[in-house]
Amino acid sequence: MATERTYSARDLLANRKVIVDTVLPPLVFVGVNGYAGLRAAAVAALGLAALLVVVRLARRERLVYALSGLGGVSVGVGVALWAGEAEGFFLPGIVTNLAMGLASVVSILVRRPLIALTGAAIYRWPLAWYWHPRVRPAYSEITWAWAVLYLGKAAVQYWLVVRQEIGWLAVARIATGWPVFAALLVATYAYVTWRLERLGGPSVEEFRGLSTPSPNPRPSRQTSGGRVRSRRGRGPRR
After folding, report:
1. How far lies 177's CA from each of 66, 117, 168, in Å?
2. At the N or C end, where does the chain have fewer CB atoms within 10 A?
3. Residues in a beta bridge with 228
4. How far apart are CA 112 and CA 204, in angstroms?
5. Reduced to 3 states, what is the DSSP secondary structure of residue 229?
6. What is the pLDDT of residues 37-65, one digit of tens each?
7. What is the SS3 assignment for 202-235?
8. What is the pTM of this model?
9. Measured in Å, how far apart are the chain's first and last C-alpha atoms?
10. Which residue(s) pair with 229 in the sheet?
């Protein structure tokens, strides 16, 4: 039976740095936009995201979430200023979710589920193991759940953009962000573990053992006098 490393979803939810770095700048953008307009909101959100990066650097803390937040805010602000509408801030996220949802569906149809590719990249397990007939179905089935999440997020947020509900856009982005992501990570681990048990496929270690060729030493020849010769016809050295 195959096993996987447990996803620490509780750490994602409990880590205040994740919430501050990725959630606070969009909230500031929406709040300032309601009181002072688009340009002020752009300056405030970018300034806060950049400040968070500086704070993480000064404290020698992990930068991944702060840089992710800064990158997302920069792209969102750029689109909003270009479009002249605050709703444009959320368009890059909608496009990203749509692309990920479609990629998930296509990966299932071509029998190379996206979650399997992600797992192989993270755990460095043999990619061929994921394509085993009694392993791949588990990853194909759970990839459908991720496809639904991505496409659902894109559909809901696009509907809110059309209705120009910027406040609800912020709520939807936060509600379907880290909490749902962490919950689906837990569900992914639980489902894949259970499904692999039902499928009865080989574990990664068993698969590696089956895939490793056994040593096959070159046969030797023996003369009529019992002396061993190599294939090239030479006798052993004395």
Report:
1. 15, 22, 14
2. C
3. 222
4. 18
5. strand
6. 999 999 999 999 999 999 989 988 888 88
7. CCHHHHHHHHCCCCCCCCCEECCCCCEECCCCCC
8. 0.76
9. 53
10. 221
